[in-house]
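Render this sequence as a predicted structure.
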Amino acid sequence: MKVKANHSFGEIRHGERLTVAGERWRAFCWCGPAVGWLALCFFVPMLLLFGVSFLSRDDLGRIGLPLTFENYQRLIGFGLLGFDSLYPVIVLRSLVLGAMTAGLCVLAGMPLAFFVAGLPTRWKNLALTLVIVPFWTNLLVRTYAWQILLSSDGWVTRVAVGLGLAAPGEALYPGAGAVLACMVCDYLPFLVLPLYASVEKLDWTLAEAAVDLGANPARAFWHAVLPQIRPGLAAGVILVFLPATGQFVIPDLLGGAKTVLLGNAVQQQFGSSLDWPFGSAIAVLGLAAVLSGLWLHARYARERREFEWI
């Protein structure tokens, strides 16, 4: 029961008189630790990273003043010797790999999500457990397992040889195909779980009505089913695309360290190259891509809610 009182004394809720100060204290107790943790372990390091990206580096690897935009100019291709397409190509290559991973996860994850949602109740929990089983193993261990599967003696390679897709005695890695296969396998659960949550809430009567009105299965899916599962599909694509764009362990181990991506570039600059300002600029670019994707998703979700209220 909720009874309004005058504004000077607040309101009474569940027998307790609340005031503005009391509400603020309650909010601080519940949200203060989480906000403090995020500020200490996320926002402060990001601000430091952003600041370092504008610093200079001398010949000995030491960083300091003066402030400069040279790191960002180098990142977009303009260096001391003129235009160099190396890093723009790295950015484009990372975006393409992330998009291909997300697209293949959609093709593989959508039938899986509908299959799990259509199972009897007693089998759904088992199926969802099998979907998230890969999360129980470290990413590095899974990547080394793919090296075994794709080696010259692995059963995947033997199947590929039997189908005429590979030459006898040759391994399927290192190569772009091995990287993409491992990426799809590792990130598929990130798409299936939010998509499954949307499929579970489907109103199938809309699809039945579309079919009754003469729509073929493809048009019924496009106009009656897809709009209902779009929020979960969009969330899943973002959860796959963003980390796949910055991945460096899988391309490094299965790509033979021959193809440099954003994640590999950051690791190299902070590692062997000792160029922290330039590595910070690359990391800031990756963070900007992540935040842009989240902002676009939030804006789309907000516009969709506003449209539904019209």
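Summary. The chain has twelve helices and seven strands. The domain at 86-309 is CATH 1.10.3720.10 (MetI-like fold).
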